[in-house]
Structure formats: C-alpha cells, structure tokens
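Hey all, quick one. A colleague (J.T.) asked me to put the nicotinamide-adenine-dinucleotide job into the tracker so the inputs and the structure tokens live in one place instead of scattered across chat threads. No bug as far as I know, just bookkeeping. Sequence used:
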Amino acid sequence: MRLVIHDVPVKKSLFTIFFVILFFIINFNFDTLDHKCFKYSSPQKLENPGKVVLVTGAVGFIGMHLSIKLKELGFVVIGYDNINSYYSTDLKQRRLDQLKEKNIVFVKGDICDESLLKSTIKSHNVDRIIHLAAQAGVRYSLTNPHEYISNNIDCFVSILEVFHHMELKKNGPLIYASSSSVYGLSKEIPFSESSEVNNFASLYAATKRANENIASTYHHLYKIPSVALRFFTVYGPWGRPDMAAYIFTNQIEKDLPIQLNNYGNCERDFTYIDDIVNGIVASFRFSTDGTEIFNLGGNRPVKLNYFVELIEKGLGKTAKKVLVGMQKGDVPITYANIDKAGCMLAWKPKISIEKGMEKFIEWFRLENGTRYINATKSELLK
Ligand SMILES: NC(=O)c1ccc[n+]([C@@H]2O[C@H](COP(=O)([O-])OP(=O)(O)OC[C@H]3O[C@@H](n4cnc5c(N)ncnc54)[C@H](O)[C@@H]3O)[C@@H](O)[C@H]2O)c1
C-alpha cells in the first residue's frame, strides 16, 4: 500500500512522531546533560581532601558555622582568629563557646603573624587552609580604609606565603573568601564569574578583587592552586551585627527607626548560612591545580522593602521606615549566576529567604531575649 501524505491519519501520526522526537531532544539537552554545564570543565573531586583543616576567622559568623560543620563531618578543625573588636567581642566569645563545646581547637592569633601561623600548622599537622579572616563590611571601609589594606591584602599575602613555604599545595587548593561586592556597579545581571570586574563601589570590594589577582600571581609564580568564593549577603543565626538582617531586626524589635537606602528599592541576593557552609565544603572537596572563582549566592534577589516585611511578620511589629537615597559604597542590586557552582561543585542553595529569616528571627529572640529584660534605654540603644 502506498503512503499518501495528505491522508489525515498519516499526517497525524507524522506530527506525533515529530513531537515525540522534539520532546526527547529537549529533555536530553536540558535535563539529562544540562546544557549550562557544557562550558565548564567537568567536576573533579579530591581523592583525599585532607584531615586537619585550619579555619581562619573561626569565631566570625561564617567561620563558626563552617568549623562546626567540618568537625561534624569528621575533620580535625583548628580555629584561628584574633577576635578583633570590629563588632561585639561578646558575640565572638559566645561563638567561641560554641566551638569549645564541640571540642574544636582554637588558637588566638593574627593572620599577619607568619611565625605563629607556621608553628600552628606544624604542631597540629595542618594539611588544608580555609581562609575567611578579613576586615568585612562596606560602610566601615569609608572611615577605616587602612584596616582593609592591612587585614585583607597584607595579611592575605602572609597566608599565601605560609601556604607556599609549608608546601600545602600538594594537599589541595587554598580556599578563601572573596565577595559579591567585586561586581560593584556591574550592569551585567545576574553577575557571572566570567564578567569583567573593575567597577568597584567600595575599598572593601577592591581588596577582595585584589585577593583574586594576588592568588593568580602566586599561581603563576609558584603554582599555588586556589579557590575564591564570592559570597552573596550571608545571613542566619549568629549573624553579624553590622549587617541588614541583624540591624533591621534589632531596630524593629526595639521600636527604633530603620534607614532604607535607595528608598527600599535596593535588591540583595541573600544567602542562608547553611547553604554557604555547604558550598564551602563542596569547594573544599574540589580538586584543581589552577585558580577558580565561584559565586555562592541565593540566586533570588529581593527588594529591601520585602525583606523588611518578612522581619515585621516574624516579629509581629511594624517598622518605622526612614527612606533615603543611595549611600556611598552601596550598590543597587546583587544577583548571582550560580551555574558554575552548580555544574562544577554540584552546589545549589536550598533555603528560601522566607524560611531563612524565620530561623534568623528565632535565634535573634533567643540570643537577645534575656538581655532585653531589665535593660535600660541606653543599653537598648547600643
Ligand atoms: N557575611 C557576608 O555576607 C560576606 C559576604 C561576602 C564575603 N564575606 C567574607 O567572608 C569572610 C567571613 O565573613 P564573616 O561574615 O564571617 O565576617 P566576620 O567579621 O564575622 O568574621 C571575620 C573574622 O576574622 C577575624 N579577623 C579579622 N582580621 C583578622 C586578622 N588580621 N587576624 C586574625 N583574625 C582576623 C575577625 O575577628 C572575625 O572573627 C570574610 O572574608 C568576608 O569578607 C562575607
């Protein structure tokens, strides 16, 4: 029998075959192989990620959470921090108590002190370093520029020198904290690691980008492998008191006004602490002989107005908003393209801003509850 193309049933079955093939092509490309990953080299896991890890900035917000996670995963963690007074040393002390509860070894010291770093590495048989210690904060860099040059650049070179001379490169790359702030006023949104970054809005951002350049230079000179992690606005329990989540929650809880820059229209790609910690652990297990940069961000920017609404809901209070224009050092939006971390580290953020802020507020009330009772007005204003 001859096939007649204008025969309606035959046409119908050709259409069906066409759509079935199309369906398979789409699924094959987009789900099975994930088209986004073609441009990245295939993920490589370190056979042996090391046993003893030095975490600098260990009583900082991210450092405390990371140290506890690594310990739970069975690593020996050596926490290192100078417990500086950029913000409440009481809070840092309480974080240190958390580390001690988990039997995490702690060394109080400065990352610029190369001889203490070396003796710590030697006496504890450290084989990997995750470097988080830095002078953080964008606004503070307007008034204290030298803190940034010394802690973030000079001391970063100390870390690289020690890493080099203690021959740690054989165990895996140096992992260190960079920042989303390096994207500055970039117009290419969402921000991707391959974008040019040279439009900084703050000295803090410039020092973080300088770290990436210095790390590349050490790779060129001594083949030091490294992984830079560009964190996007990290928040969660034990968070920093100089950041929006803490400041707004604190002010609203005390019925004090909050200042919303850019009239509340700035957007931030908030990232929950547990997601960040999982990203650091994934990069710690990642193998490279070169230098890599990864964005670790929530991949869902929200307007500050919405962020404040979440806090109002969580506290059951109404914010007294003071709307102001853009401030020096500020950027209108941060938004992470996280394809690279997804493809090469198999990392994806899991906690929504709604859930994350619930957890933060729960911690905030527990942490500060007892201190609010009987506090004087001037204490509350602190
Ligand atoms: N939290 C965020 O949203 C965020 C975003 C982007 C990048 N980062 C980067 O991640 C890292 C950790 O950030 P964090 O939020 O935990 O900050 P943090 O300020 O809570 O922690 C940093 C810790 O480093 C310590 N430190 C600073 N200078 C030191 C020095 N010279 N010697 C020894 N210790 C020193 C401080 O005492 C502090 O405990 C920093 O490098 C920061 O720039 C953080």
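Adding what we noticed when we looked at it: Confidence is low (pLDDT under 50) at residues 1-5, 28-33, 372-382. The pocket of nicotinamide-adenine-dinucleotide is lined by residues 57, 59-63, 81-84, 92, 110-112, 132-136, 151, 155, 177, 179, 231, 233-234, 240 (CB under 6 Å).
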